[in-house]
Amino acid sequence: MAVDNDEQRILAEWSRRLTRELQIRDLDVDVELLLELARKSAESVIHATAPVTTFLVGYAAGFDAGAAGTGKKAPAEGAVSEAAGIAFRLCEAARNEGPGPRQRD
C-alpha cells in the first residue's frame, strides 16, 4: 500500500510514540510490510481481516522472539518476516480457495 510522504512521517512518528509508550525498546517497525500485509489480507478475504492479520502476525513474532530469549532486534525482525510470510501465503490461498481451512479429501 503506497502512502505519501506526509502519511509516512505520521506513521513513523506514531510508531515511535506507541512503541515508547508500550515500552518496546529498540524496535524498528516495518510500516511498509504491515501496510502491504493489511492490504493483501483485506483484498484476499474481507476488509476486517486487515487489523486482525497484522495483530496476529505481531503476536506470533513477539512470541517467537521471546522464545528465542535474546531480546535482540535481529531475532524480532526475523520473527516478523517469518510470520508475515505465513500470512502472505494464507492471503494468496484465501484469494484462490476462500478464507476457511482447506478441506482434505
Number of helices: 4
| Strand composition percent | under 5%
Helicity range:
over 70%
N→C terminal distance: 37 Å
Query: What is the structural class?
Result: mainly alpha
Low-confidence stretches: none
Radius of gyration: 15 Å
In round numbers, the mean pLDDT is 83
Shape verdict: globular
Please report the total strand number as a whole number: 0
Q: What is the succession of H and E elements?
A: HHHH
Please give the largest β-sheet. Answer: none
Domain count? 1
Descriptive account of the structure:
This protein is an all-alpha fold. The chain has one domain (5-97). It has four helices and no strands. It has helices at residues 5-21, 31-44, 49-68, 73-97. The longest helix is centred in the last third of the chain and has 25 residues, at 73-97. It is globular. The model has no long low-confidence stretch (mean pLDDT 83).
Topology, element by element:
Elements: H1 5-21, H2 31-44, H3 49-68, H4 73-97
Helix pairs in contact: 2-3, 2-4, 3-4
Task: Pick out its properties.
single chain; mainly alpha; DUF6457; 105 residues; DUF6457 domain-containing protein; 0% strand
Quick recap:
With 105 residues, the chain is mainly α. It has helices spanning 5-21, 31-44, 49-68, 73-97. The mean pLDDT is 83.
